[in-house]
Amino acid sequence: MSTIEQLHGVFARAFEIPVEAVNDELEYQAIAEWDSMSHLVLVEELESTYNISIEMEDILEMGSVTKIKDILKKYGFEIN
Fold it and tell me: Phi/psi of residue 52, each to 5°?
């Protein structure tokens, strides 16, 4: 599994959407499934999958798939 497939899987699990619905253009509140509550589920999925603890500042900045890729890079994960 590639790093991008893994990340898309995290989104699919957190929002209970098909993995095919996840792409770089996906943004917070752009779909009904990505609301404030599911955002917290996404954070949990990311922390569990990547075995990291995400800082509050970064959680607040997680507004899109692209931004989350940038944040994961900060934690040592290159997503391509």
Answer: -130, 165
φ, ψ of residue 10 in degrees (nearest 5)? -60, -50
Q: Name residue 64's beta-bridge partners.
A: 27
The DSSP bridge partners found for residue 27 are 64
* Residues 45 and 13 sit within 8 Å (Cβ to Cβ): yes
Angstrom distance (rounded) from CA 34 to CA 3: 21
The helix (run of H) or strand (run of E) holding residue 55 is: none
Which tokens go with 12? 């699919």
Asked if 39 and 28 count as a contact pair (C-beta separation under 8 A), the reply is yes
Per-residue pLDDT tens listing for the chain (80 residues): 799 999 999 999 999 999 999 999 999 999 999 999 999 999 999 999 999 999 999 999 999 999 999 999 999 999 98
